[in-house]
User: Fold these one by one.
Assistant:
Number 1:
Amino acid sequence: MENNSPHAKCGCGLIAAVFRPRRGTLASSAPNNNNGNDFGKASNTPDTKRLKGESEDAASLGTASSNKAKDSSSHSNSKPIHKPTPIVNQNQQMNHPRETAGGTSKVSPTVGYANHVRRVPKEAVSISGELESMIADHQKSKGSSTLVRASSSNVMLYGNLGNLRQGGNTNSHNVVDYHAKQREENPVANGRYTNHKVEHVDKGSNEESGSLCRALSTRMDPEQLKIMGNEDYKNGRFAEALALYDAAIALDPNKASFRSNRSAALTALGRLLEAVFECREAIRIEPHYHRAHHRLGNLNMRLGETDKALYHCKNAGPEADPDEIAKVKNIQLHLNKCTEARRLGDWNTLIMETNYAISSGADSAPQIFALQAEAFLKLRKHQDADEAMSKGPNFDVDECTKFFGPIGNANLLVTRAQVHLAAGRYEDALDALQRATRLDSNNKEVNKMMRKARAVASARSNGNELFKASKFSEACVAYGEGLEHDPYNSVLLCNRAACRSKLGQFEKAVEDCTAALNLRPSYSKARLRRADCNAKLKRWEASIQDYEILLKETPDDEEVSRALLEAKEQLQK
């Protein structure tokens, strides 16, 4: 059952991320002048630096000074406060059971301020005291007394929470990772990390686990989560960084730097359209956020949206890069030439200009790859069209619709359907066209392609049924009817060649196979059929040539090896 409470959005997985011992964050190994653990200790990093945005963006990291690393190393889970910081001495800790080397002891809750000491009221006990009380209650009910130090200000149940495994092994991942046996034995740990939320496996899960997660999540510092995410980003752990930025956004959704950093992580993971939407959100929150404008300009350039790219590059302020602006203008020039070449039907020029645009920086623009695929289709180079389309990005249809609009995405889907149809993937072609129809029902090209795809798919299906029934003449007619709608469909040509071969019409079968191979040179089934028909026509040299090509592609094919050997023997005779 999914926990939809506002505090549960961070989940236990986020707790594990916060509790990870790592250099320069919560688990600092720096000397402590208090000779003990600092409960509720404020960060040494001045609040004013964070408000100014120092080191706030993941892409600007990597040059941070050692002083900043020291400042961030003492940052705790508590949010900074503008009052004297309580310092708890090791000999003056909270009045709760504490596991020590010599056994369990109790001490009075006293706090040191400057040069005097005063007793803290019970109701003013910090999060550490609250958590220890919850853990102590849990121990009493479960009969367990094993504690482990997770950070400078919290204690965890060993094996129940965080990123520590039993048996002394450590887990380097940022998620809660339980063994199946632990889930059965430990109701408190009977949850799993899914999409940054705590999802309980059964309705009987203990409520203490949710309370503990909420108690922690409401006190996590989003700035500290961002710092930890930046560290992961610098070290190339983009998925981990994304999880931490998600956690920070869940706690403070209106911080532009969190959104911008999340966009950087999404870009590194290849999720460009999501990165665009996140950058837009950052600019909505802070319209003059230069780094977000710069990042959005770069993303739009890669996606082929040159007008938008120029707008955001010019609004990037000191982040603006003249070389990048020149690159966008160069891509824009090539795209204008693409439009003109398409209008004139100059398909070779269109292929050349799309290659220039892609190599100049528009490497993730689906509409450019679609233009190139369309040009190859017009030149009846179906294999090249398929390769061009496969090199382009494979974005989610809904995200494409959100970015390019319903009409733009419908046109992309039509081109994709044409490529599927030419390659014989009829079901994929029909699926793409159905999606395009839903997006733009008035598009004449979509409706025309839908009729064509249905006719070709029906002809192939009918012909296959007749061929299986050994009705080769009828099957040949059925495939021919499909070719009336799509004369250059390589699959229908190859299938008709099979029927003609069965009918002894080897010359016509060779013609169909040759037509199919001109469209798709790597169509091995058509090449094998042509080699066989040429052998039956005693054209040994042509047959040997095809068999040798096939053997290079599939060197372990014994049938091809035998056929090649036989053709060579016949040629010698």
Note: The beta strands are 98-100, 103-105, 110-113, 116-119, 147-151, 154-157, 191-194, 197-200.
Number 2:
Amino acid sequence: MGAIEGQTTGKCPVMHGGNTEVGNSVVNWWPKSLNLDILHQHDHKTDPLGENFSYREAVKQLDVKALKQDLHALMTDSQDWWPADWGHYGGLMIRMAWHAAGTYRIADGRGGAGTGNQRFAPINSWPDNGNLDKARRLLWPIKKKYGNKLSWADLFILAGNVAYESMGLKTFGFAFGREDIWHPEKDIYWGAEKEWLAPSDERYEDVSKPETMENPLAAVQMGLIYVNPEGVNGNPDPLATAEQVRVTFARMAMNDEETAALTVGGHTVGKCHGNGDAEALGPAPEGADVEEQGFGWRNPHMEGKASKAVTSGIEGAWTKHPTQFDMGYFDALLDHEWQLSKSPAGASQWEPVDMKEEDKPVDATDPSIRHNPIMTDADMAMKLDPSYRACLDKFRADPAYFQDVFARAWFKLTHRDMGPKPRYLGPEVPDEDLIWQDPVPAGKADYDVDAVKAQIAKAGLSIVDRISTAWDSARTFRGSDMRGGANGARIRLAPQKDWEGNEPDRLAKVLKVYEQIAADSDVSVADVIVLGGNQAIEEAAKAAGHDLNVPFQPGRGDATDAMTDADSFAPLEPVADAFRNWQKKDYVVQPEELMLDRAQLLGLTAHEMTVLIGGMRALGANFGGNKHGVFTDREGQLTNDFFVNLTDMANTWKPVENNLYEIRDRKTGELKWTATRVDLIFGSNSILRAYAEVYAQDDAQEKFICDFASAWNKVMNADRFDLVS
């Protein structure tokens, strides 16, 4: 009997593997293809709460007092399915919060606790995050109770704060306002390794020189938050570990005192887990089968006892009273000699040579049993490195000072990626303004904008001067950690005024004019900078035959040097700006990849990036006045000529040297224009070409001008958190 017509015998009736296998992706088939996904990774279609939901409004309705009472009760409500150490979940919750926040790095502002990303792969399954799936599941009843008025991102950090409070620490404060994402952050580069905990040599030019770790990375190995607790590549050497700790924490903008305080305060409570066979554990959450329901690292030998847990492989508590925030860490580390030993799981750890039985912590399950405390290689680094040791001695001599330094460092760690203080919500937001929050004073908003525009018009600055200055001021914004931007006019201050990409000599001349206008008008320089750019765009549109009113919202303020942590602003320096067709030097990645990185940090979509590039070329706003990509004989007018001529098949294109191309007339061979890769990518990449074709059409000029103004306004106002209720 033959097969029924229309059927294929034995063939799966669904698109088998097509939606899940990476091997079927365009990038897999064509590895050099430009992947634009990062520009649309958090599209509203993924958000189950809908476009009209506002978390900022919802969280204002939260009963914070009741929530904190519930969290305090949770800390000591040990549950059979995951028993708490000494009947207290504080250590587990602190580690969860710490590891959520600790992924932040200052180089690109990515990572951190601000999005609830710990719920998703790969972070939910990193080796260093072992058993934090249990912490998150312990919090589920509370999240369920308070619903959309409480984000997971806020709950993770608040749980850590409450844990510390329940164990005796007076915290510095807490802010709500972190909004959840709904799928992993694909834009974050965690390293090139293909294996968890691969030797750290792979991310260093020289592993003996920690400062040579690849940027923007901060963790020393794939799957770790900071450093390997057993030592460099698992080899104990406290002084070598100290240098890795120093670089890692510096890449979070932490100094030695903050680093020492965080290490001590983090290890004053809780314990490490390695009382068993690490090889017996099941797969991580992302690799576990469906019956595990999101759990990972199944321990077949735990026997319902907290003391049988296995996570890092190191086993033991640091202090005699692991559920109390006290000075016991100093007593243990500094008053005893320590020697290397092995945990039951085989991990390297340090244990005291001689300690009285009564000074040892009791077993996490059975209080009749005592065990040696332990120290990791990073703890021993605090004792043996001269700078860290000086911090510990100072802390020990003044417990109140230590608690204050730690509370502030913990607040910084858990709030750094939230950005400026206007984004903070809730009753526990500290009154004090902190320099790492990039404070900006309120600016004047009730003034005659047209009068200021008239002064700018009379000043004689070129369109390019005005547009370039406004763009350079605003382009520093990073949606990753909400830093940078035009508000504050920090382009006037060190280090920004001296950045190569800001053309310091040209910038100084423009700022001299703007500062005088600001003084005469009693408005901020920040407003004048943006207003000047807007006015230039309106002039350019008028020259192209279109009336345009670029939206402007006054009220920016001017920061001062005293309000600016210059060192932490250094990583915001652009090394390339496709929008002004500039690149500081050649890099491993292609210029168009650097363009995507900047566009994503600015919060731009692919079509917004496209229209801005085309408009900036037509305006002649390239760095240093270079003519690459200026495909027009009407430079300075806001036209769609860039797209018209890019897509004109009367032209041919050929490379002449690295990142430089010629556009010639197909019939005569006459040289018409030059271009870079970031110009030609809009004609070669199929997706970007589709956008370019929209703006090249005969009916597109008005749409082009409106879309350009809208995208420009978005960048100019990206940092206006003072306007958000």
Note: The beta strands are 271-272, 316-317, 338-342, 348-352, 576-577, 582-583, 651-657, 660-665, 671-675.
Number 3:
Amino acid sequence: MHRVICLVLLSSPWIFPCEGYNPCCAQPCQNQGVCLSKGADAYECDCTRTGYYGVNCTTPEVFTLLKSTLKPRPSLVHHFLTHYKWIWDIINNISYLRDTIMRYILTSRSHLVDSPPTYNADYDYKSWEAYANLSYYTRSLAPLPKNCPALDLPNAKQVVEKVLLRKQFIPDPQRTSLMFAFFAQHFSHQFFKTDFKKGPAFTEALGHGVDLGHIYGETLERQHKLRLFKDGKLKYQVADGEVYPPLVKDVQVEMHYPPHVSEEQKFAVGHEAFGLVPGLMMYATIWLREHNRVCEIMKQEHPDWNDERIFQTTRLILIGETIKIVIEEYVQHLSGYHFKLKFDPELLFSQRFQYQNRIAAEFNTLYHWHPLMPDNFQIQNQVYGHHQFIFNNSIVTEHGISNLVESFTKQRAGRVAGGWNLPVAVQGVAVKALEHSRAMRYQSFNAYRKRFNMKAYSSFEEMTGDKELAAELEKLYGHIDAVELYPGLLVEKPRPNAVFGETMVEMGAPYSLKGLMGNAICSPEYWMPSTFGGKVGFDIVNTATLKKLVCLNIKGPCPMVSFQVPDVKYQKTSLENVNSSTGHSTQNNINPTVVLRERSSEL
């Protein structure tokens, strides 16, 4: 009987141990209290700095009780931030108010992420190995102890088929574009790079953050093969008068291409898997052009600098551009807030903040946003199925970057939350994600809700908001506390008119903002003009936008470019009229002596 209770209520606040097993398997310590086993039939809870006390850390201290009474629910805060636009329009135009709210958002979210890191897949207790070994992903919740009874979980493939797999495409009501979907995929691959030779708990991206390893390569050897070693630039090729990444045969770096891909379509970039889909290679090409464009500006500003200094300074500038675009446009879009987010590292200079970051395994699991992908991809007047789209770099060169950008901006992505929207083409990836999370002994979906200050769900229908989906989940799991993190994130009811559910946002935002603002360039020691080559380089960072990134690196008119599918007709603008601070274009600067053109303030 005890074993049955352990199986069903492993993540519930029951105080008795599982007979014959580690008593901490029953997770008796609540509110982030730490469980210490004392033999097979005893344990103690360390409630230090949890705000609770008692045998199981369940009795709130006076301040905790007061705080929990006054603190609004995440759903209420989200409602306020996504409604009452007229109020937010006023706040957004008052610098002091905007800065104060942004500072609070950054600190309140970032403090939910442990820094320094605490656990990893092999250590459910604090240890020097868990802290110092960068080859592991860290963990927000300790893994279940190894000597716990095996949970009677449903077959992973069955879970995917019953509650995740797409019946028909469900478009995102937030009008998220494929431009956003591919940005998410390309951006996150610089720090989500699992080392499957070692196992799902390990990462090859030892920078654990925004270091642009997907542009420059994870190792110095790969970086050197991709560099031109002249004027700080990266190697490139010219096709139809436009710059594209070099070929594998010319730079001799490893890329993951199947045998049927021709040598002339095997582009070489920083991340070896970016030949998978044209959306990834599109962004890789844009960033290659941007790197070489900025190098040309640095060369003009500092004619005495050597290749190495130009390269290193340009890399820092591109890191800054990335973080600004991610916070002010990417995170802004997925939040749905009327409050205008702001990238300003100085907001945290007076705060207690650690400029370091470790990528959590749960963050990696959370970022499996495959429902964003449609069943087909429409580029100009052509429609490509998944089998025609993957490993097809000819799409990039045949249509050109401008047409790809506009086509991806016009096509709506799928809704992530709500279940039943995972493309059949990535079914195997979803099964592996669930199997890997089991191998790493994740705690339950409800356990993670409580870890990130949300109320645990009490029923399947409360979680999904859908009777049919709830019934399928109950057949699979039997008890609400048995639902796992990965499927829970994808079946949770979406917020009104949003791409995600509550848990995805409330978990994802702390990881994201801590990783972005914990970057070295955001520290007081780095955040100054001289780090970025002076005022000109600093201005490139501080004025960066997605539109500039694209339009300063293509020929001809500026295409439609947005993370949200526009609901009004868009008129192309000619780049001949464009002008902005430090808005030089070197995409056409195949000959280094070509005169740099100014671009319009519309950017």
Note: The longest strand covers residues 34-37.
